[in-house]
Design a protein that fits this description.
With 133 residues, the chain is of the alpha+beta class. It is built from 2 helices and 7 strands. Strands 1, 2, 3, 4, 5, 6 and 7 form a 7-stranded mixed sheet that branches. A hairpin with a 6-residue loop joins strand 6 and strand 7. The protein is elongated. The mean pLDDT is 92. Pfam families: Tail_completion_gp17. InterPro entries: Gp17-like. This is DUF3168 domain-containing protein. It comes from Micromonospora fluostatini.
């Protein structure tokens, strides 16, 4: 079930408004990739990973967005684009009625120089919920 929901979220991120495409990475940053980008991790409330047809109750997906930029301002700019792509949007998932995506939590940009290059990472957590259509 998570696949259908994550695909909907990633499609929203890839279609984020802006003059350049928003790079949305699903759980992995390829070697050599430089900011800006959003690195996305997903978690859900379905430990059995049932199919949509087998799930007759509310499904919750948490979307952990690591908004990455070369400085704090760039990380905030990525976070702003992500917010405009997700917040309040009702995604389309076949066979499900979705609620508007909500922001649950977040942290300010965090400095990382472990690779010898400054990277700032601002984390925001969003929630997507759905029920059978």
């Amino acid at each position: 079930m998570i696949r259908e929901h994550t695909a909907a979220v990633l499609a929203l991120l890839q279609g984020a408004p802006g003059t350049t495409p928003l790079v949305a990475l699903d759980g992995h940053v390829p070697a050599g990739r430089v900011p800006p980008y959003v690195l996305v991790y997903f978690a859900d409330n379905d430990p059995e990973d049932r199919s949509l047809e087998d799930r007759q109750d509310r499904y919750v997906l948490w979307v952990y967005c690591h908004n990455v930029g070369g400085n704090a301002d760039a990380a905030r700019a990525v976070a702003t684009r992500v917010r405009s792509a997700l917040l309040g949007v009702v995604p389309v998932v076949a066979g499900r009625d979705c609620w508007p995506i909500r922001r649950e939590d977040g942290d300010p940009p965090d400095r990382d120089e472990s690779t010898g290059v400054l990277v700032m990472d601002q984390v925001d957590v969003y929630r997507l919920e759905s029920v059978p259509a």
